[in-house]
Amino acid sequence: MLSFDSGLTNALKNSNTTAFWVLKLYYNDESAFIGVSDQHRQDGSDIYYGVVANWGVYRQSLDFFNFTTTIGNMGVTLINSENSIKGGRFSDLLATNNFVNRKWELFLNTNETSTLDTAARMIATGVISGDINYDSNNVTLTLFDNTSKYHKRIPINTVASGTYTNAPANNVGKPIPMAYGDSHEKGDVGTIPTSNFDRFYNFYKGAFPAIITDKWDVQEAGSEALADSQAIHTMDNENVYVYKNGYYPTLTGTIDVGGNPEIEYRGSTASVYVPIGVSNIASESGTGSYSVANEERVGDGSFSNYASWAASSGETNNSVATMTFALPQINKLGTYSAISALVKWGTNSDFEGENSETFRYTVGSTHVDHDTITDDSETKTAIGSLYSGKTATWDFEGSLLYTLKGGSANNNHTAQIYETGAVIDFTLEDVDPHDIQELYEGGPIKTVFQPAMGPPELLEIGYDYNMYTRTITGFTPSKIDYIYYSGKGRKYGSYIDADSRNQGYNANDLIENPVFIIEDIIRDELSLGSSNIDYATFDTAGNTSSGYLGDIYEDAVGDVKFAFAQYKFINSKDMLERLGRFSFSYVFVGGDGKFKIKTLRRTDDYSSSDQTIDFYDIDLGKIGKTSLGSVKNSILVNYNHDYGANQNKSEATATDSTSQGTTVNGYNQTMKLEIEANEVLDSTTATKLAEALLAFMKDRKNTVEFTCLRPKYNHLEIGDIIDFSNWLSTLKVYGAAMTGYFIVADITKTVNGCSIKAIKVS
Questions:
Q1: Across residues 183-200, what is the average pLDDT?
Q2: For helices 514-524 and 535-542, what crossing angle results, to 10°?
Q3: How confident is the model at residue 464 (pLDDT cuts 50, 70, 90)?
Q4: Cis geometry, peptide bond prior to residue 209 (ω within 30 degrees of 0)
Q5: What is the number of other CB atoms lying within 10 angstroms of the CB of residue 454?
Q6: Radius of gyration for the chain, computed over Cα atoms and rounded to the nearest angstrom
Q7: 540 in helix, strand or coil?
């Protein structure tokens, strides 16, 4: 909503007020302008020539269910007759004044106001289109908001050949990723041991790509990759990987992330951890008095619970407890060096190897023994001898027995294992090129334009040469060399604490909140500052205590966590609207030229409006409902993106039987929505996203269209929330009294009023 000053606001309440617009058309270096209006007006030294023949309309609209917005636009017709301006025609000014792609500003005034270009009376601003047409009578100008000026292809930083002179040929000109959120340690697996387990991908939320900027050459000193174009929150030397045949082996040479976001790496050695297979395993076996309990826990990736072996030689001498596990087939990833059994132990009673008690690993007839195990330790035991003649081909598939031998001392023995698997050390032969499918969708950029007279037109405003990855129009393979890392992405800058802001975040905190990821992209990638951003709307949407994001997700704002690396080129408008869809937010450039965000809430969260519309101020058009095609009552969210495999690995679902059913509130059909939420790693966030999509889309919404007969409501914008007063009690809305709140989905402004389409949100 625009913030008009009190003088204008009070004047617009007066039904006898005469409203008018003045328009400033800047040219050349934008230090000067030509002012125009419907009649000659002078405001101090500023002159507004009375050459406007037709103002046309200024229009904004949003797609309610897709969370996209149009480019605000208007068409103005100027008189171009002889001697109409500065002793000549307006078209004569084009010889010395270049208006194309320069700023314009439109102000709403009344006969009761003065200082016509007061900022608090601006109704719209943007850039003048290059589409300037004229004849001997009229000049037609097309005006757009700042959307086309602000947006660009991102990430903006690339692997430039002049900067990265030794970059792989495949990577030159490719984007340096933007990383957000947390792909570091899993938070639900207990405490990850720090001697060996903490270096393996298996115990981390994910792995973000880092583009190689210096060729890998094992004969040279090393190589380099960039995780981002700016320093990120967390990187570890131990958690840098390559992607090979479905695995993320850890690089074990010399790794240095001290130059964050740069990763330096040397050598060609790597290790991969393969958990023990625990599916469809048989019961324990043994001799004497023995047991194995909770054996499935040893391969579940968690350090919270353990499996227990007991060999009670105090009851039966030389008791033995055996559990048969298996190693899965492992693709050959390089030149074999060693294979070891890695174990995180718990408490092990009377187990010092003095009386033939031992813990044994067996394959076939060959075994390797542990004679001494310390409580709560990690052990890495070489078991290459179990696979004699098979290591070169990585033929490790098959049974692997874990046996506790109680020994001959007539003592009871126990062993606890939290997690175990095989570690294979090897030498990389190269870094595989990573195949991705990049989509190209170059073509005209169009917007719906409302001319001064006649029906709306689909107007071409430029050409888009960007490549996209979210559509399915056509595929062009592109090979890019990456390494990968588990870490945490971009941090808040000082802006989050500036301007008396207080939304619960501080500079250098990790950015996980999608609302502020959007703001960060606007600042860092589009190079815009606080004067171009209505940051109060971002704080309203995303603050940790009462942010609307928490309302729509029905969760604490701090628990809505996005995590992703944008490593492909994408138009920034497409990126912001994609994030907007997953945060139920509309991101647009307002009439004041600033980026704004408006976030939806659950229906019962609304308790006030931005503006109450008096029924006596409007001419009611029609009452309707959103389309049946927009109803979705079966939601599938694919999330947990694997950047090496280029696919999402997990699913979250939500369904509504009432919406699918045959009652008065049902639609007699299962209507499915499947989305790829590459930006979500967290299972709780994905589940809440599916539930919120269902709540939002399972029903049709009431709509109201009306015209305001005076410019009293011309401060409204798309995304604003309205309600109604003095609605006719006899005029029902589908049989019910008019109540609740509506969102402005489409607004067309004229000098004398506006037309609005609103959709009910509560």
A1: 97
A2: 160
A3: low
A4: no
A5: 8
A6: 33
A7: helix
* Domain chopping of the chain, boundaries: 6-145, 275-427, 491-592, 604-626+701-760, 628-697
CB 233 within 8 A of CB 491: yes
What are the tokens at 608? Answer: 């006030």
Can you list the positions of beta strands (E) in 94-135?
103-110, 122-128, 133-134
CA 476, 482, 488, 492 torsion-angle sign: negative
Q: Which of 403-407, 629-633, 653-657 is least confident? A: 403-407
H-helix segments, 253-296: none
The yes-or-no verdict on residue 643 having pLDDT over 60 is yes
Pick from 229, 230, 253, 231: nearest CA to 240: 253
What is the C-alpha to C-alpha distance for residues 360 and 552, in angstroms, rounded to an integer?
54
Q: Which two tokens stand for residue 147?
A: 């959307």
For 397, list phi and psi in degrees, rounded to 5: -65, 135
**Helices 572-582, 514-524: crossing angle, 10 deg rounding:** 170
| Nearest residue to 481 (alpha-carbon basis) of 126, 226, 758 | 226
Q: How far apart are CA 761 and CA 606, in angstroms?
A: 8
* Tokens found for residue 109: 């005034």
Buried b / exposed e over 37-46, threshold 16 CB at 10 Å, is bbeebebeee
Strands 742-750 and 753-760: antiparallel
Residues 6+ apart with CB under 8 A from 553: 559, 560, 685, 688, 689, 692
CA distances from 427 to 168, 195, 253, 537 (A): 21, 21, 10, 53
Note the pLDDT tens digit of each residue in 248-274. Answer: 999 999 999 999 999 999 888 999 999
Query: Of 9-18, 104-113, 433-442, 646-655, which one has max mean pLDDT?
Result: 646-655
β-pairing, 412-427 with 307-312? antiparallel
Cis peptide before 177 (omega within 30 of 0): no
What residue type is 26 in one-letter code? Y
Amino acid, res. 667: Y
In single-letter form, the type of residue at position 690 comes to A
* Across 507-529, average pLDDT: 99
Task: Quote the percentage of the chain above a pLDDT of 70.
Answer: 92
Q: Which two tokens stand for residue 717?
A: 């914008």
Residue pair 48/705 in contact by the 8 Å Cβ criterion: no
For tokens 């583009």, what's the residue? 211
Sheet strands (E) in 665-741: 672-676, 702-708, 721-725
Question: What does the alpha-carbon distance between residue 531 and residue 438 come to, in Å, rounded to a whole number?
Answer: 35
Classify the phi-psi angles of 527: left when phi > 0, otherwise alpha if psi is within -120 to 50, otherwise beta.
left
| 275-427 and 628-697: identical CATH topology | no
Classified by CATH at the fold level, domain 628-697 comes out as Phage tail proteins - 2 layer sandwich fold (3.30.1920)
In the DSSP assignment, the letter for residue 234 is B
Region 311-317 average pLDDT: 84
Amino acid occupying residue 198: D
Report yes or no: 404 and 311 within 8 Å, Cβ to Cβ: yes
Please compute the mean of the pLDDT values over residues 463-472 and round it to a whole number: 46
Which residues are paired to 381 by β-bridges? 341
**Cβ atoms 34, 51 nearer than 8 A:** no
Summarize pLDDT for 13-24 with one digit per residue, the tens.
Answer: 988 889 999 999
> Which position has the token pair 């679902």?
653
Architecture, CATH, for domain 275-427? Sandwich (2.60)
Query: How many C-beta neighbours within 10 Å does residue 272 have?
Result: 25
Contact 680, 555 (CB under 8 A): no
**Number of helices followed by number of strands (H, E) in the chain:** 8, 50
**Dist CA 301 CA 342 (whole Å):** 13
pTM: 0.92
